[in-house]
Amino acid sequence: MGSFQTVIYEKNESMAYITLNRPEVLNSFNTQMRDDMYQILGAIKDDAEVAAVIIKGAGDKAFCAGADLSEFLTAPSPVIARQIRWERDVWGLFLSLPQPIIAALHGYVLGSGLELALCCDLRIAADDAQFGFPEVELGIIPAAGGTQTLPRVVGRAQALEILLTARRIDAEEACAIGLVNLVVPRAELLPAAEEMARKIASLDQNAVRLAKQAVVRGLDLPLAEGLELERRIAGQAFKNRRRQTH
Ligand code: COA
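A: This is the predicted complex of the input protein with coenzyme A.
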């Protein structure tokens, strides 16, 4: 794959690394980054070699400090902005990736940065991480899935408090409410993400992908339909397993 303006893409055996790479503006998310991510995620989706993906931010200060406010202020008309979103549905692509995605989060994780982290399957925070949705303070609301993904991760009351007060929460609190899986010292962030990715990569990849699919798709269904989905996917997993052992 070629190189990208705003994101670094690397592959090491079965692990893929995506690094948001605009550290001078705290990796804020602009249109170019969305286009770059779209291409990278599309390629990962079809890459059978990739067993797990790690997403991280370049620089010391931030994973991502949200949407690029300079673009926000000069944004084209809402109609064009919406059209760009449809054409570049990076968030939908994220949620449809078959491989587990691990977000390695440090420093500021704000607005779209938090929305991006919420599209991942597992979140590991450095002890210096700070999370928040400042959108309401700016007179807007999150528009990259945050109002839907946050309550699915932390529950309705916690999500509403975070969204409506725009307050920042630290890594410890994020862990206590289930927003992140794990908190580690800053220096151990990448090693911890890699350890998790390696563990996943060492397992049966069919089973890993099917388990992810059952959880992600099932969360959008009523329980009875979710159980039916699990029955079908478990049947598929047994069939795959039998095929491997014969
Ligand atoms: N969009 C564009 N540029 C941003 C940005 C964003 N979301 N967040 C930070 N930057 C830029 C700053 O303008 C600054 O650029 P400069 O050096 O050319 O002036 C650089 O990144 C460093 O940020 P700075 O504000 O100096 O760092 P800080 O440590 O004092 O403050 C934050 C960090 C995150 C508290 C502050 O940058 C901030 O509030 N950013 C906006 C966050 C936000 O509202 N995001 C959601 C948008 S919906």
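The chain is about 50% helix and 15% strand. The beta strands are 7-12, 15-20, 52-57, 62-64, 101-105, 108-110, 122-126, 130-132, 169-170, 182-184.
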